[in-house]
């Protein structure tokens, strides 16, 4: 178990839980960050933060301060 | 003034309800589902924009002319991911759908637009919408693209699962719209609210159960997601590259400014000449008299002084439109986020603040892309500090009159350029400091994170860009126009009472003299005082007013304006004046637009007071320092 912000570029993981206030968490869930969803780290912004994630067909950028509250289970890259 | 300038929300007028008839249709969909394109298709040019009462969310509505149903009103709801009332947008959507929004009739039917390229995720919005029990038609947008990229969906099976009709459309191409006409025809004959209980819908408000429900449905209806476009990834590899990305970003910014100033400025000048010649012709036709003076010198000149900015403003709207519709705006926000965070804002504030260097009006209207309300308000409040093009005539006049053209670094960078540059820098630093101040005090952010969706790159269409520019232009003219009309009439009356008095002897002349003790420490005389009062309409108006005042004064009549100013003002006073203009909120259009975007007079009032105090203090300091330490 690790935080989404710790994953390197190109790594894939499964979302486990969101350690965020309920409102924020719900909003992120509606944008695709639900438990058991697959997330792939696409790239970082030129300045190193935020990071772009691919989830459920969409690319969504999150700052490190948000991504570190999303707990994930890294899986081997099979794509 | 507030009565005649009240920009209250518009009540949508509808025909009285006949039983079983549809009158209003709501257009619902997630962000980036192509909802606005569809709305433009369905309503055409004659759409209306207003603010919902009490909130800062825009309401777009229009008659369904696009499918020949001008008897029906279509309301475009803000793009939402769910009916969770997380954002103001979602709260507005929910209350409109429930028929609880004052001034907006309860919708009789719903058009739900979903992006068929991402149907699995977009379907999650169907659950809460269907549970409302309104007659609903589900529209799978961009179905042409989905099929080209090898995607599949069984619309009949989907209709069975959802219990409502489903149609494939393409809003960009305008295909499949007959299904909407058909749905509305049928529904208006036999309007029967559908019993919601028959459907097995997931637990309301639970993101996870919505997700499972949507996944289940897309699996059962054999939805096959299309292969995602490689284009976007490939482009991003370049446009978001660590080194190339920021360089291209700067190139885009410089390009936009080059065009706004090299094309927009001459256009504005030509437009201004055109407006003045109309005024002159009409004036000559009317002959001399108070009516001609009110109409031409008062109203027309005042309104024209604001209208001259229209070409630049529209050009900026066009650029912001291209950036947004192409998908680059989100990338620009991603690149700029790190820098903007340092001053307590987020990346989405960057492009609006940049636009404010040309004009604060489009900048403030462009802040709608910032979802976080506090960030948005902070951006609105600091935008007028950016050096807009209306300040330039004042800067150029004063610098040419008072600053010697001494070379500092070679021939290219002289003292005049240095003064100009420091004025730009001053505005920027004031914006920066104010943003920090706001974000650590009255607009202290709650824990709302910065979430940025990067849409796929798309080629903007001429049609949607055109509609956007027209729409924004109309909003500007309507909002600023009414208030400017009031202010110009008021200023004309004040400068013409008592009758047949010249400007120095009019009420405004007396006020100018009366405020002289207040502005004397800044090095300003009463003529500057009158100029400051008249420039409340727009900053550059002071140049014309000073021209009139010095032209009417026998002592300075024979001198040019620059020489006349040198005759009357000290260097300290002149520099204090430009610094005053760098900080002061001398722009009625901006105040009008801030009032519209924040939906309250409180914010523009606060902004005006804050900027005036800052301008006064800074001008005072500059005059005192120059008077005591230079020469």
Question: Keywords for this structure?
Answer:
heterodimer; A: alpha+beta; SH3 type barrels; six-stranded antiparallel beta sheet; 2 helices; 41% strand; globular; B: 631 residues; alpha/beta; Rossmann fold; seven-stranded mixed beta sheet
Describe this structure in words.
- The complex is a heterodimer of chains A (79) and B (631).
- Chain A is α+β, with helices and mostly antiparallel strands.
- Chain A has a single domain, classed as Roll (SH3 type barrels).
- Chain A is 16% helix and 41% strand.
- Chain A is built from two helices and six strands.
- Chain A has helices at residues 22-30, 64-67; strands spanning 2-3, 12-18, 38-44, 51-55, 58-62, 70-75.
- Chain A has a six-stranded antiparallel beta sheet with strand order 1-6-2-3-4-5.
- Chain A is globular and about 30 Å long.
- The model of chain A has no long low-confidence stretch (mean pLDDT 89).
- By secondary structure, chain B is of the alpha/beta class.
- Chain B has a domain at 24-226: 3-Layer(aba) Sandwich (Rossmann fold).
- In chain B, 57% of the residues lie in helices and 8% in strands.
- Chain B contains 27 helices and ten strands.
- In chain B, the strands form two sheets. In chain B, strands 2-3-4-1-5-6-7 form a seven-stranded mixed beta sheet.
- In chain B, a hairpin with a 6-residue loop joins strand 2 and strand 3 (58-64).
- Chain B is elongated and about 90 Å long.
- Mean pLDDT of chain B is 85; it is low at 1-9 and 190-198.
- Chains A and B meet through helix 1 and strand 5 of A and helix 8, helix 9, helix 13 and strand 10 of B.
First CA to last CA of chain B: what distance? 47 Å
What is the name of the CATH class of one domain in chain B? Alpha Beta
The name of the CATH architecture of one domain in chain B is: 3-Layer(aba) Sandwich
Largest β sheet strand count, sense and barrel closure of chain A: 6 strands, antiparallel
Provide the number of structural domains of chain A. 1
| Beta-strand proportion of chain B | 5-15%
Largest interface: A-B, 33 and 40 residues
Q: Could you tell me the radius of gyration of chain B in angstroms?
A: 28 Å
CATH homologous superfamily annotation of one domain in chain B: P-loop containing nucleotide triphosphate hydrolases
Helix share, percent of chain B: 55-70%
**Overall number of strands of chain B:** 10
Indicate the low-confidence ranges of chain A by residue numbers. Answer: none
